[in-house]
Amino acid sequence: MNRDKLIDLFSEHPDLLNMESADDAPSPEWTNKTEKALSLTLPDDYKWFLSNFGDGDICGDEIYSIYCMADSHNKCNIVNFFMRNIGK
C-alpha cells in the first residue's frame, strides 16, 4: 500500500484510529539510537510513519514507537519490546 492510500484510509476511519502527529515524532537522533541499540536498520516505511505520526493505535492496538526516554517500563517502546522478545 502506498503512503497516500494509507493517509486516505486514516482520514476515512477516524473512529478506528488514534494517531498522533509529526509534532510527536522521535528525532532522527532517537531513530539512529534505536537502530544502534537493535543492531538493525528500521524499514523506511516505518521511519516514514514515525516522522508523520510519532505513534498511535488502531482499534486500541498500539503501534510500537520510539519514545525519547529511557523507560524500561514503557511496554510500547520498540526497543524494550524487541529486547524482551529476543532475550537480550
Task: Explain what the structure shows.
The chain is mainly alpha-helical and 88 residues long. It has a domain at 3-63: SMI1/KNR4-like (3-Layer(aba) Sandwich), CATH 3.40.1580. It has helices at 3-12, 28-38, 44-53, 78-86; strands spanning 17-19, 56-58, 61-63. A three-stranded antiparallel β-sheet has the order 1-2-3, with no helix packed on it. Strand 2 and strand 3 (61-63) form a beta hairpin. It is globular. The protein starts with a helix and ends with a helix. The mean pLDDT is 82.
Brief overview, please?
It comes from Photorhabdus stackebrandtii. This protein has 88 residues and is mainly alpha-helical. The chain has four helices and three strands.
Blueprint (SSEs and pairs):
Layout: H1 3-12, E1 17-19, H2 28-38, H3 44-53, E2 56-58, E3 61-63, H4 78-86
Antiparallel strand pairs: 1-2, 2-3
Average pLDDT:
82
Low-confidence stretches: none
**What is the element string, with H for helices and E for strands?**
HEHHEEH
Helix content: 40-55%
Instruction: Indicate the structural class.
Output: mainly alpha
**Text of the CATH class of the domain at 3-63:** Alpha Beta
| β-strand amount | 5-15%
Distinctive features:
88 residues, mainly alpha, SMI1/KNR4-like, 3-stranded antiparallel beta sheet, 45% helix, Knr4/Smi1-like_sf, SMI1/KNR4 family protein
